[in-house]
Write a structure and sequence with these properties.
This protein has 369 residues and is an alpha/beta fold. Helices cover 45% and strands 12% of the residues. The protein binds 3-hydroxy-3-carboxy-adipic acid (HCA) and copper (II) ion (CU).
Length: 369
Amino acid sequence: MIQILDSTLREGEQTPGVTFTLKEKLEIAHLLDDFGVDFIEAGHPAVSKDVRCAVKTIANEGLNASILAHSRAMRSDIDMALDCDVEWIGLFISVLEDRLKLHFKKDLDQVCCIVEDAVQYAKDHGLKVRYTPEDTIRSHFESVVKVSKVALNAGADRISVADTVGAATPGRIGTLIRNLIDRTGAEVNVHCHNDIGLALANSLAAYENGAILVDVCVNGLGERAGITSLAELVMALKVHYGVDNGWKLDMLPALSDRVEELSGLRVASNAPIVGENAFAHNAGLHVSAALLKPSFYEIFSAETVGRTRRFELDKLSGRDLVGDVLTRGGISLNECQMSDLMVRIKSREKGNFTEEEILGSAMGSLEGQ
Ligand code: HCA
Ligand code: CU
């Protein structure tokens, strides 16, 4: 089993320059719910009145997804989450040596007491709890085990391994997760930042080693370089592990487009799955093979995610594509005219052609007969 928690409304709103209104959050929450994520992390209620209002509104929308509020490990934050009517709370506090000493000025035992109190308090008030030892990857493993056991004994339902600064490698996070499960018996979640571009690989390694839930954001939003992208995770799970949780895959482009619009954060043209070029073929050889059978150059078909493939027309194009354009345009050239047209196409050093330009040029050849 693998579940997905989408954090576009919490981690995603921590993307520099990105904020969402209540109306926008509701729209995104509904899209995510229709798509089929298991959890929506709706926000951190202690941040502001409008975040509280959004979390509460989303929690009362009657969505299929479970709604989780993010919270520091303190009663005042938990009270605010309780006011929002959420089912789940995500409590976090770091046990990283440096943070304990320099930032919290507490030792590990004191932080364990804080965690114990917070988890117990949340559980006593009817919440389901996941506890995250923030920056799990860079923390001493024994500290992580110790605080996780405290959280579990206090009633925590899950432990989340956070790679807060993208410091993990697949091998390292996989081993950590396997060992944490062995040592604590916890149901483990994972949250991977993308600072070196490894968020997806690390999330998959976590899954392979027993994690039951992966955190994602639409378009990989999040602090700095963001976290694992929803579209990439879902397609990797489907293509490489045969996982299909009934997700509406053809919603991925619309979800991405809408979040792109609302966040103002542009998706790169070469972004996997949702980027403009994700199903665009260019070189003549690629195009002639893909025209014959798309899977020669597509790991999964564009249609799987509700997209169409595109063929780029420029000096790299070959006769198959040009011939296809002409056939669709109802134009038939003889061998000599076709050769002339190909020479004209191949002599444009920079830039591409539209189909209309190709057809216009072909018409010219016909008229010049
Ligand atoms: C943060 C850090 C966090 C927390 C994750 C969690 C991380 O923004 O507060 O609480 O599960 O990456 O560690 O996003
Ligand atoms: Cu994070």
